[in-house]
Amino acid sequence: MSTKPYNPADEGAEMSFRQKMSYTDYLRLDDVLKAQSPLSDAHDELLFIIQHQTSELWMKLAIHEIRSAMDAIRGDTPQPAFKMLTRVARIFEQLNNAWDVLRTMTPSEYTEFRNALGQSSGFQSYQYRAIEFLAGNRNTAMLGPHSHRPDLLASLEDILSRPSLYDEALLLLSRNGFDIGDEANRTNWRETRAENPKVMEAWRAVYAAPGKHWDLYELAEKLVDFEDYFRRWRFNHVTTVERVIGFKRGTGGTSGTHYLKKMLEVELFPELWRVRTVL
Ligand code: HEM
Ligand SMILES: N[C@@H](CC(=O)c1ccccc1NC=O)C(=O)O
Fold first, then answer.
1. How many structural domains comprise the chain?
2. Whose CA is nearest to atom 32 of ligand 1?
């Protein structure tokens, strides 16, 4: 005895989208799902492509959130920035978990298609560079790989012409009466700023009396949280890279694992880490 299969149309599920916007239409899935073009017959190349494309989508959202957080801080309304920065940290947590999928690819499997990648490399990810530049890790040498794309170069240059997320936090400290020295009058934002003892002292005062400076205290902790998850991303990346290609040179031309280990030393918000020692 068979029962009739359940039909969601009986309770009103729409079944015809000839004249209406569907899920596939709204999400432009034809564009998204046609954008994977492996260059080899290797089974794992699709994993590699999807891993990177999904990472780039999450980075797009991170950039959107960081920019809005910066606007909120600049407008002296830091509260919405807290939520946005929490989301950025969660995005990095998501990216960190994604390494578990890529880690299932062995060196033997990667070697099957590595040649097809030519000299392309994550080193040329302009969204990754945008996140670093927005956060405050600025190095104009990193513009080089984008010199053939005036549109991308212009958007990175635009980021470098304005204060970073951390600069916005320091300017907020200054507007709240904290002495941050010459940094309050800075006009050139293109390079990473030098560490500043006055900024360290300002953060020390914030951490010494959280109740008195709650917004600045909460902002500082959101920034530390963001950097914490960012550091974990760098660490997961270099560990995966060592596991898959050892100490081979990178396709992008750097020393590979050695280069990435050096990048682990980068600090986005140095005084916020330094201040811990003196509390
Ligand atoms: C098997 C997987 C991977 C390997 C073997 C690998 C390898 C490398 C190497 C060797 C570099 C140094 C630059 C070079 O000379 O090429 C690099 C940089 C980079 N990779 Fe990967 N990578 C892998 C996966 C990923 C994934 C999934 C992402 C996510 C988007 C990514 C993003 C980046 C970025 C953003 C850089 C630049 C880092 C910086 O300049 O600090 N990589 N990668
Ligand atoms: N740099 C990697 C290649 C690589 O991982 C890659 C190549 C093209 C697009 C994204 C990549 N991912 C991260 O660098 C390698 O040396 O094997």
1. 1
2. 122
Q: Of all atoms in ligand 1, which is nearest to the CA of residue 105?
A: 1
Mutate to test the pocket of ligand 1, among 109, 121, 124 (most ligand atoms within 8 A of CB): 121
237 lines ligand 1 (CB under 6 A): yes
Q: Say which ligand is closest to the CA of 254.
A: 1
Q: Ligand 1 atom 29: the closest Cα is on which residue?
A: 52
Q: What is the b/e burial string over 129-146, where b = at least 16 CB atoms within 10 angstroms of the residue's CB?
A: bbbbbbbbbbeeebbebb
Who contacts 98 (Cβ-Cβ below 8 Å, separation ≥6)? 51, 54, 55
In-domain check, residue 214: yes
Q: pLDDT of 78-116, one tens digit each? A: 999 999 999 999 999 999 999 999 999 999 999 999 999
Cα–Cα distance measured from residue 155 to residue 135, given in angstroms and rounded to the nearest whole number:
15
Atom of ligand 1 nearest to the CA of 257: 10
- Tokens standing for 171? 């300017």
Give the model confidence (pLDDT) of 223-264 as tens digits: 999 999 999 999 999 999 999 999 999 999 999 999 999 999
CATH at 174: 1.20.58.480
Q: Is residue 33 part of a domain?
A: no
What's the complex ipTM? 0.98
Query: What dihedral angle (degrees, nearest 10) is formed by the CA atoms of 237, 243, 248, 251?
Result: -40
What integer best gives the mean pLDDT of the chain?
A: 97
Q: Residue 260 Cα, ligand 1 centroid: separation in angstroms?
A: 8
Tell me which residue range forms the domain holding 61: 40-278
User: How much distance in Å is there from the Cα of 153 to the middle of ligand 1?
Assistant: 20
Ligand 2 contact via 117 beta carbon (within 6 Å): yes
